[in-house]
Design goal:
Largest sheet of chain B: 6 strands, mixed
Distance between the termini of chain B: 36 Å
Shape of chain B: globular
Oligomer: heterodimer
Helix content of chain A: under 10%
Order of helices and strands of chain A: EEEEEEEEEEE
Mean pLDDT of chain B: 92
Shape of chain A: globular
Number of helices of chain A: 0
Strand content of chain A: over 45%
Number of helices of chain B: 0
Helix content of chain B: under 10%
C-alpha cells in the first residue's frame, strides 16, 4: 500500500504570493489532517477534512484554507504569504479521523517565504 | 495551543544506554500516542496507549500512562544511533483532532 504522498517536497515563494500544497492519503483513508511545524511552535493543527467536509479547524487566519476531493485527496492553500508562513507543512491521513486512531504522515512540504 | 509538553527538550546519550522522555498534558484524554520524526521528515507512529491502560510495550519501547497525574513516559532501552530523532507525544479524544506536544530531541552517540 502506498503511503501518504505530499507534493511538492520543497517550495520557495515571495511575500504576497499564494501557494497550493497537495496531499494524497493512503488508499481507503477518508480523513486528512494538516499541520504546520516550525522550530519555535512545534506542530500546530491547521484543519481536518473527512468526506470532503472540513470537520475541525485550528487557530489560523483565513489566509489558510483547504479542501478535499471525492477521492480523498486534499489541498491546502495559503494566500498573501508572510515571512512567518515559512514552515514544514505536514499532511496526515487516517481511516475515520477520530482522535482514537493513529495518523500516517507524509514527508511534508518545506515552504520558504522570502 | 499545545496540549502536551515533553521533557526534556533535548537528550544526549551513548549507544546502549536507556532514554526516557516524559509528556504532560492538560485535559482528559481517550488515548496518548508517541511519534518519531527524523530530521525534516514526516512523523512515524510508534505506540498508542489507551486511557484505561497503564503500561504498554513494543519491542525496545515501553510507554506508561498515569491519568491521575496527566503524564506519560516513553522509555527506549538499549538505544542505537538510529534512534536519533525527535519524539512527540499526542493526545486524542473521541471526536477531536490529535494534539501534539513540543517534542524531545534525542541524540544517540555511537
Amino acid at each position: 500500500k502506498a503511503g501518504v504522498t505530499q507534493t511538492p517536497r520543497y517550495l520557495i515563494k515571495t511575500r504576497g504570493q499564494q501557494v497550493t500544497l497537495s496531499c494524497s492519503p493512503i488508499s481507503g483513508h477518508r480523513s486528512v489532517s494538516w499541520y504546520q511545524q516550525t522550530p519555535g511552535q512545534g506542530l500546530q493543527f491547521l484543519f481536518e477534512y473527512f468526506s470532503e467536509t472540513q470537520r475541525n479547524k485550528g487557530n489560523f487566519p483565513g489566509r489558510f484554507s483547504g479542501r478535499q476531493f471525492s477521492n480523498s485527496r486534499s489541498e491546502m492553500n495559503v494566500s498573501t504569504l508572510e515571512l512567518g508562513d515559512s514552515a514544514l507543512y505536514l499532511c496526515a491521513s487516517s481511516l475515520a479521523g477520530t482522535g482514537n486512531e493513529k495518523l500516517f504522515f507524509g514527508s511534508g512540504t518545506q515552504l520558504s517565504v522570502l | 495551543s499545545q496540549q502536551g509538553e515533553e521533557d526534556p527538550q533535548a537528550l544526549s546519550i551513548q549507544e546502549g544506554e536507556n532514554a526516557t522522555m516524559n509528556c504532560s498534558y492538560k485535559t482528559s484524554i481517550n488515548n496518548l500516542q508517541w511519534y518519531r520524526q527524523n530530521s525534516g521528515r514526516g512523523l512515524v507512529h510508534l505506540i498508542l496507549i489507551r486511557s484505561n491502560e497503564r503500561e504498554k510495550h513494543s519491542g525496545r519501547l515501553r510507554v506508561t500512562l498515569d491519568t491521575s497525574k496527566k503524564s506519560s513516559s516513553l522509555l527506549i532501552t538499549a538505544s542505537r544511533a538510529a534512534d536519533t530523532a525527535s519524539y512527540f507525544c499526542a493526545t486524542g479524544r473521541n471526536t477531536d483532532k490529535l494534539i501534539f506536544g513540543t517534542g524531545t530531541r534525542l541524540q544517540v552517540f555511537p
